[in-house]
Amino acid sequence: MSDFSFTSRDSFQRLSQEKIQDAILLLERERFSNAYYLAGYAIETALKATLCKKFFAECLPDRKFVQSVYSHDLQALMRLANLSDALDESTKLDPNLAGNWSTVLQWSEASRYEIMNALEAIDMVDAVADPIHGVLRWLKQHW
Fold first, then answer.
1. How far is residue 110 from each of residues 64, 68, 79, 124, 133, measured CA to CA in Å?
2. CA angle 20, 135, 94 (to 5 degrees)
3. Number of H helices, E strands in the chain
4. Does residue 4 fall inside a structural domain?
């Protein structure tokens, strides 16, 4: 039995999908705070799915890098995934994606302790789940 636990890239991808689906259901049931939180969490897990590509079997990664991957800071995770430049280019071409990324950046792990209103939750879920300009749709192209 291994002393290590891990979450696979596929698991993070599935988690991301489940979190946004749950966020949509919660939004429909007017559970705004939890819908908001889970929508942001869908982005965090999508970024971590992307980061999984940086790990290779039988290689010991840099300790600082590994520790930084456990962050909940979406902008930091975007940088770690080396997607910042690609996102900058995409947001220049798609102002709606830029607005959605700006909305998503309002999320933090501490959001789970906040009470969100309907507008905040709708904006967050839409920013993540928009089928054309959504942040999750954009991240799926890179995971």
1. 23, 18, 21, 15, 26
2. 150
3. 8, 0
4. no
Contact 128, 134 (CB under 8 A): yes
Tokens read off for 40: 């942001």
Assess if residue 113 is contained within a domain: yes
Question: Does any domain span residue 2?
Answer: no
In a domain, residue 1? The reply is no
Q: Indicate the number of domains in the chain.
A: 1
Q: What is the pTM of this model?
A: 0.89
Write out the residue range of the structural domain in which residue 82 sits.
9-140
| Digitized pLDDT (tens) for each residue of the chain, 143 residues in all | 556 577 899 999 999 999 999 999 999 999 999 999 999 999 999 999 999 988 877 777 788 888 888 899 999 999 999 999 999 999 999 999 999 999 999 999 999 999 999 999 999 999 999 999 999 999 999 99
Neighbours of 38 (CB within 10 A): 26
Q: In this structure, are residues 104 and 135 in contact, taking their beta carbons and an 8 Å threshold?
A: yes
